[in-house]
Amino acid sequence: MNPSADYVPLIALPVEWEWALMKTGQVLAIMILLLISLAFLLLFDRKVWAAVQLRKGPNVVGPFGLLQSFADFFKFVFKEIVIPAGANKTVFILAPLLTFVLAFVGWAAVPWAPGVVIADLNVGILYLFAISSLGVYGIIMGGWASNSKYPFLGGLRSAAQMVSYEVSIGFIIITVLLLVGSLNLTTIVDAQAAGIWAWHGFRVLDFSEFPSNILVGVTMLAMLGMFFISALAETNRPPFDLPEAESELVAGYQVEYSSTPYLLFMIGEYLNIVMMCAMTSILFLGGWHLPWGPVESLGLNPFFTSLVAMLIFYAKLWIMFFMFAMVKAIVPRYRYDQLMRIGWKIFLPTSLVAVVAIGYYVTFLQPAVATSVAGG
Amino acid sequence: MLAAIAWWVLATIAVLSAFAVIAARNPVHSVLFLILTFFTSAGLFVLLGAEFLAMLLVVVYVGAVAVLFLFVVMMLDVDFAELKQGFLSYTPIGAIIAVALFAELALVASASMSSNGVPISVAATGESAVTNAEAIGQVLYTDYLLVFQMAGLVLLVAMIGAIVLTLRHRPGVRKQDITAQVGRKRSEGVELKDPRPGQGLG
After folding, report:
1. A122 closest CB neighbour out of B28, B75, B131
2. CA atoms of A360 and A265, how far apart (whole Å)
3. Per residue in A276-303, pLDDT tens?
């Protein structure tokens, strides 16, 4: 809340106001970066999908279709906004706005590089979890306010799905928290600095603590896989895109939406996917650290270290997004009862057992040096 | 200064939306205002330095409990006009409850002030080295361990009780057998017939 003690003001403004201005600038910078990335991620998604199906994908607007997303954007924006008669107007408009805003709000706590973060919260991971659990409101509100049966059913299905998978995501996050001993995202990333064998997803490679690395490694590898699958379900991506199951529900909660409100829903949805990629990379894939060691080991000056760290983090986002795109392309859609069965009957018990296993490791097996990690 | 602005904005929204919860005509709007109230209260917690509690409030109440409220309110076929009819007759009871709650809050608030008027709440640890997640954990899992576990047990009993009360085994209901579904072979599901022209399968 307060600027740090060694803070030198640039302009003759009260320090607090200048701090607020600076934060606003950072927020804008992150937003613009995310929106532009999103334009190309959308194109990338479609290109990957096309490539799997031996098509070319969008290739008309700009070289290699690079400007396709921008063309789509203008097309969306210039369409007429249709609000159905009998719709609850305020809630109808509010729902996409909420989805859009919440998708951005989470990024405030995401660290891009050592120190490059808008708000380095002590409870960062809880904050991300809390914000992502709010995303369900945009969908319920949109489905309900449309005053039509298809969106309503789609919204309810979607909400039930997201709530179910949040539970197992929560337990998976707890396993990481147990290993790190802190809720701070920067601390979580720095706990994985040593190299790929220290990344939580690949702890099995750490043979320096031989017998116990099998227990913790196998558990965490399973957690990585489960987190990825839960992320697919949480963001309503194929193969769990039941809310939008075109063949059954037309387009789920967003049937009645057109033009900019629809665009906001779509941007929010994709931003949530990118957020899940960021969370996977922070929790399991070492954040901004290189597979062979911490980014600081490159010996660059602080500015370039941050820059390289940001690039590594960004590259990991794209790699994770590639995984999301590939899953969309190659896995057929699940049935709703199968989805619920996986969530409640398989993921929930498995993640509970994993929490117990990791708790056992942290209490009895972890080398004494590492147990002194105090929360940041 | 910024904190003061944030406090005024959050507090105003919290009070107004709390009022809107009971004033709104549409129950769904009521629940949405309730969610807004929860959310702004979480913001007030953050201003107090109790970020852990704030996040828990958002995760548990906004992210889970209120979703269930919303589900129930949306699914039920509520007659809004009928719902509003008894509103005035319940006002005295509501007022009594409100006064009692307010008195309790005032008592707690005055009790938590030390003699020189400085609040001694757990949350206001300020700049100390322990984050408040750790502070809560240390108290909860040492001093109050028994109470904490008993609370957990009560919740578990309540949950199992709810399931037992509502679970009815109806005979003759066909259930899915996932193993049988997945383990089905082609030879069991597909049968090739060779009908002659003009005869059909008979």
Report:
1. B131
2. 42
3. 999 999 999 888 888 888 888 887 888 8
The per-residue pLDDT for A61 is: 87
| Tokens matching residue A88 | 């609850």
Q: Which residues of B touch A91 (CB under 8 A)?
A: 28-29, 32
Confidence of residue A138 (pLDDT cuts 50, 70, 90): confident
Q: What residues are paired with A235 via a beta bridge?
A: none
Preferred mutation among A134, A182, A342, A344 to probe B, highest tally of B CBs within 10 A: A134
pLDDT along chain B (202 residues), means of 10: 87 92 84 91 88 88 86 75 72 90 88 58 54 82 91 95 89 82 85 81 66
**B63: which chain A residues are within 8 Å (Cβ-Cβ)?**
130, 133-134, 136, 166
- Torsion A173-B44-B145-A375 (CA) sign: positive
Closest Cβ opposite residue B3 in set A1, A122, A156: A1
Domain ranges of chain B: 1-80, 131-167
- What is the Cα–Cα distance from A343 to A350, expressed in whole angstroms? 10
Beta carbon pairs, A and B, within 8 Å: 81
Q: Which residues of A touch B58 (CB under 8 A)?
A: 130-131, 133-134
Q: Does the beta-carbon distance from B3 to A134 stay under 8 Å?
A: no
Sequence letter at residue B75: M
The architecture CATH gives domain B1-80: Up-down Bundle (1.20)
The segment with the largest mean pLDDT, out of A157-166, A220-229, B20-29, is A220-229
Closest-approach residue (CA) in chain A for B73: A144
Nearest CA in chain A to B29: A91
What whole-number distance in Å separates Cα of residue A10 and Cα of residue A5?
A: 15
> Nearest by CB to A123, which of B1, B130, B133?
B133
DSSP string, B121-156: -SSTTTT-SS-HHHHHHHIIIIITHHHHHHHHHHHH
Residues of chain B neighbouring A156 (CB-CB closer than 8 A): 71, 74-75
Give CA–CA dist A172/A279, Å, rounded: 12
Amino acid symbol at B78 = V
Interior CA angle at A345 toward A340 and A350, to 5°?
125
Residue A40 token pair: 């190309």
